[in-house]
Write a structure and sequence with these properties.
The complex is a heterodimer of chains A (459) and B (488). Chain A is globular, with a radius of gyration of 24 Å. Chain A is of the alpha+beta class. Helix content of chain A is 21%, strand content 36%. In chain A, the strands form four sheets. Chain A has a six-stranded antiparallel sheet with strand order 3-2-1-4-5-6. Chain A has a five-stranded mixed beta barrel with strand order 7-12-13-15-19. Chain B is of the alpha+beta class. Chain B folds into two domains: 2-227, PmbA/TldD fold (2-Layer Sandwich); 230-485, no CATH class. Chain B has helices at residues 2-14, 70-87, 120-135, 204-209, 211-224, 242-254, 259-262, 376-381, 432-437; strands at residues 19-35, 38-56, 59-65, 104-108, 142-158, 163-181, 184-190, 197-199, 229-230, 234-240, 292-295, 318-323, 326-327, 349-350, 359-360, 365-367, 385-397, 403-415, 418-424, 427-431, 439-442, 449-458, 463-471, 474-481. Chain B is globular and about 70 Å long. The mean pLDDT of chain B is 97. Chains A and B meet through β1, β2, β3, α2 and α4 of A and β2, β3, α2, α3 and β17 of B.
């Protein structure tokens, strides 16, 4: 594995070749492996090792980036020259700030996210775990498909003003689909620490969902009370946090334009961005090397704050919006420069309710509703009302008089996130969850009234 | 590169691999973008590495490295065999590969102008002119432009003696105008949404697209949508312009015909398919006018799915997918061909880069144009009442590819054979086979465009691939319109 001292030595060579006023390097990569199975067979099984150096050169108000994974001397020279050539031909941008020498103050200590046990996992270990998942499938007379991945990654930033930072972490993930002839079930979990993943338990839940939703019935589309498991909540919620960056407001592409400081959601919605949360993942610094701050984005349904890169914070204080967007300060959420998006919160943590309910309790209190395991192919229909469309998938159940009655055919929904998070009746304890449409979050299961299903598909 | 390949092939064989193929890839890309008069992206990148795929004990293993030194290549080959042996502990049967003749070949994407020879200054100058033109329209609140180039050089070498050197060029460009006012944010994109038009060709594409010439119109249309009526809700005839029909093909034909999906190999992520094996040559997929091919050959055009050989050394082919409405073919690979009784792969296996395992991907999945001369204006003139929908805005389909919903940037109400009202927020939805069976007219060759979809996601780890979709405007009868906004 590449380590910080080797990376720093590489950056010193980059500096030697640089003729720019300022130079920065992002150095990242690592080892990863993924064992994939389907039809109760390991059908794809891959591993890779790759390290990348991304150099940004700046001349006054002009900057550009060049990236390579070739680490020999000639390639380093070439990547520096490429970034300089790209930068030199640009118009000067008054908004471009000098590189930072100060990463800002850390807001909470990020816990250790590198685990030897995860880094040491072998193909044989993964195959053994997959064998257990397949055994569960066979016990239930089901077919299984999924993945078991592990990896170890590094991420560093160095600039010519002396700023440097380094992060290492491991990752592991298991995702399991169980298939019956006309139904399916799904579970997914991930963690930097492979030791807390339990493939057999995940397989068992997925298998029960597949078996219990067999012979799904068609019930009409319409507005239903839904119980969304955490993965379903996060896959929806992820579509709104791109709008919580200051630049999205300045660009007038955010659904929060004219809404910051107002009651957008229900009073029971509280959301933070918090990279140091014990269930979160990722590095403690942003694309410019600024330390990520803990920011409360939503308090009792009111959008309180946005996140900012250095340039956006400065621009916002000079804009017509400066008195309409809450506190403006550098929060350490910027993407590598240059970019079009500015910044976004990527370590979302939902606040738990005073009286959390389990999914079983939510079901028990539901007269008529739908229990949703997972959502799929979510896309934005209306960017300002934040209407999303998508499908349910892999375990959708009809709930009546406090009990799960039977599996139902999958629905298409067209639902506004504003509407959805204004109608939350109950919440569980937030957990680390992972879906397929959005980044991982710490998020609870939710019981939501009047969720808008518009069509029913054929299975 | 042969000597590097030999290091890997020798080690794989010594370690017990029954088959080994590898790809050494050297790729270069450039991304330029502007946003409201400033540079949004100015980035060059390059990546090089080797991906080694082996069969051992009847199971697959794959390992990749960015290090092309002998030690690293031999270690990577060893790792691939070890992984294959681990895979073999959880298998139901041995992998079977359809035979393929060894070939030695060289091929380069036909192109007139190497896009990397055009100066960055010239490119940014064009993008800034477009940006200025868009923002000269009162009411445009955000203007975005982009230009992207890619050159991918690949050496594919196998233990069967195949040695193929291919170089592919990709060019893409487009722009979008946004208009925010009150509680609505509208956008218009050109030539299509999500990055514009993309093809496997050189810089000549940029000239052909007439980007600057269309900028003001697009800006004006974005603003005009604020004064447009909402698209009515109901069951109507619709006409889809060609880029939207291209995406409709991608989602409701291209993905369901991937044989790996059909066989359950993608069940955990991308999903499966309603096109179970019993439906081959028995399912009436569409009306008699629906003829779809999967054509990777150069003669089909410069699509993102055009090549000479796929990533397991199989020559580019044209497979009839829907023939006069009948479902006639899947996208196949050497591993899957036998499941439909075929003794040869259809040549569709591709990988995103050196560090990814090749998998079945769409090539150019195109609907053939109508044989009788028919322009879009003539098609509109022959429609009593309907909605013309242009440029995709949202897209979603279930994991078996039955139920879909698409939203478009702009619509026109057609009454008595004429465009009447401009409509905002048009959307339509349906069930795949019902939809394609409702097609009753398609425009002819002059209105046919080979569109590029650069962002098709599939696989775990996910791979992004470019696919091509030729289409001309077509009419569909009695389609559900407007459900996307119903009840919200």
């Amino acid at each position: 594995m590449l380590d910080k001292s080797k990376a720093a030595e590489t950056f010193s060579r980059i500096r030697k070749y640089s003729a720019a006023d300022e130079v920065e390097a992002l150095i990242y990569g690592g080892r990863s492996a993924l064992t994939r199975f389907a039809n109760n067979t390991i059908h794809q099984n891959v591993a890779e090792e790759n390290y990348v150096i991304s150099v940004r050169s700046a001349f006054g108000g002009r900057t550009a980036r060049a990236t390579t994974n070739k680490l020999d001397e000639e390639s380093l020279k070439r990547v520096v020259q490429a970034s300089e050539s790209l930068a030199r031909v640009q118009h000067e941008d008054a908004d471009l700030m000098p590189m930072s020498s100060d990463a800002g103050k850390a807001d909470g200590q990020v816990p250790n996210r590198r685990f030897d046990q995860t880094a040491a996992i072998t193909p044989q270990d993964r195959a053994q775990a997959v064998g257990k998942i397949v055994s569960t499938a066979q016990k239930h007379k089901l077919i299984t498909a999924g993945i078991f991945s592990t990896g170890e990654s590094v991420e560093g930033i160095f600039n010519s003003r002396g700023l440097s930072d380094w992060h290492t972490q491991t990752s592991s993930e298991i995702s399991i689909t169980m298939l019956a002839s006309d139904s399916s079930g799904w579970q997914k979990a991930n963690s930097p620490n492979v030791g807390i993943l339990d493939p057999a338990a995940l397989a068992d839940i997925a298998a029960r969902k597949a078996s219990n939703s067999a012979a799904p019935k068609k019930i009409p589309a319409g507005k239903y009370t839904v119980i969304l498991e955490p993965a379903a909540v996060l896959d929806m919620a992820g579509f709104m946090f791109w709008d919580f960056g200051g630049l999205a407001i300045l660009d007038q592409r955010s659904f929060l334009n004219n809404r910051v400081g107002t009651n957008v959601f229900g009073e029971n919605i509280n959301v933070w961005d918090d990279v140091a949360h014990p269930l979160q993942s990722g590095s403690p610094f942003d694309g410019e090397g600024m330390r990520r701050q803990r920011v409360q984005l939503i308090e009792r349904g009111v959008v309180k704050r946005l996140v900012y890169s250095r340039a956006t914070a400065r621009k916002m204080t000079e804009s017509e919006y400066k008195n309409k967007v809450g506190p403006i300060e550098i929060t350490g959420h910027g993407f590598p420069i240059p970019n079009e998006m500015g910044e976004a919160p990527m370590n979302i943590v939902f606040g738990g309710p005073a009286n959390p309910k389990t999914v079983d309790q939510m079901i028990a209190s539901t007269e008529r509703g739908v229990l949703v395991t997972r959502l799929w192919y979510i896309r934005e229909v209306d960017p300002y009302e934040k209407i999303l469309t998508g499908m349910t998938r892999d375990g959708t159940f009809y709930v009546e008089d406090g009990k799960v009655r039977y599996g139902v055919r999958n629905f298409r929904f067209n639902e506004s996130l504003i509407h959805m998070f204004s109608n939350v009746e109950d919440m569980g304890t937030p957990v680390r969850a992972s879906g397929e449409e959005s980044f991982d979050m710490v998020v609870p299961a939710m019981k939501i009234r009047d969720f808008n299903f518009t069509e029913v598909t054929k299975f | 590169m042969k000597h590097i390949a030999d290091w890997a092939l020798n080690v794989a064989e010594q370690r017990g691999a029954s088959h080994c193929d590898l790809r050494i890839v050297d790729e270069r890309s450039r991304a330029l973008a502007t946003k409201n008069g400033k540079v949004g992206a100015a980035a060059d990148s390059e990546s090089q590495g080797i991906g080694i795929r082996v069969l051992a004990n009847g199971a697959w293993g794959f390992a990749a490295s960015d290090d092309l030194s002998r030690t690293s290549v031999e270690t990577t080959a060893t790792r691939a065999v070890d992984i294959a042996k681990a895979s073999s502990h959880v298998k139901q049967s041995d992998v079977r590969l359809a035979p393929e003749k060894a070939v030695i070949a060289e091929w380069t994407t036909p192109h007139e102008i190497d896009p990397f020879t055009i100066s960055v200054e010239q490119n940014l100058d064009l993008l800034f002119k477009i940006d200025a033109e868009l923002r000269s329209v009162a009411g445009v609140t955000l203007a975005e432009t982009n230009m992207n180039f890619r050159r991918e050089e690949q050496w594919f070498i196998s233990s069967a003696g195949t040695n193929i050197h291919q170089t592919k060029y990709t060019t893409g460009a487009g722009f979008t105008a946004y208009a925010f006012a009150g509680t609505e944010l509208h956008k218009r994109s050109y030539p299509s949404s999500f990055g514009g038009q993309w093809q496997n060709k050189g810089y000549e594409l940029i000239h052909e697209l007439k980007l600057l010439e269309n900028a003001r119109r697009i800006g004006e249309e974005a603003v005009a949508l604020h004064h447009a009526d909402k698209c009515p809700e109901g069951v109507f005839d619709i006409i889809l312009e060609s880029s939207q029909l291209g995406l409709q093909i991608h989602e409701s034909v291209g993905h369901p015909i991937e044989l790996d999906r059909v066989l359950g190999m993608e069940a955990n992520f991308a999903g499966t398919s309603f096109l179970t094996l019993d439906k081959l040559r028995t399912l009436r997929y569409g009306s008699d006018l629906v003829n779809v091919v999967a054509d990777a050959r150069q003669e089909h055009g410069p699509g993102l799915g055009t090549f000479a050989f796929d990533d397991e050394g199989v020559p580019a082919q044209c497979t009839p997918i829907i023939t006069n409405g009948l479902f006639t073919g899947y996208l196949t690979s050497r591993e899957t061909a036998h499941t439909i009784g075929s003794n040869r792969s259809g040549g569709t296996l591709r990988a995103e880069s050196w560090n990814r395992l090749p998998m079945i991907r769409m090539t150019n999945i195109s609907i053939l144009p109508g044989e009788k001369p028919l322009t879009l204006e003539q098609l509109i003139a022959s429609t009593d009442y309907g909605i013309l929908m242009q440029t995709n805005r949202s897209w979603s389909i279930d994991d078996k590819r039955y139920n879909f919903q698409f939203g478009c940037e702009m619509g026109w109400e057609i009454k008595g054979g004429k465009r009447t009202r401009l409509l905002k927020n048009p959307s339509y939805s349906g069930i795949t086979t019902e939809f394609w069976n409702s097609m009753d007219a398609i425009c002819s060759r002059d209105d046919w465009t080979l569109w590029g979809t650069p962002n098709c996601g599939k696989g775990q780890p996910q791979q992004v691939m470019g696919t091509g979709h030729g289409a001309s405007p077509a009419r569909f009868r009695k389609i559900k319109v407007g459900a996307a906004y119903k009840g919200t």
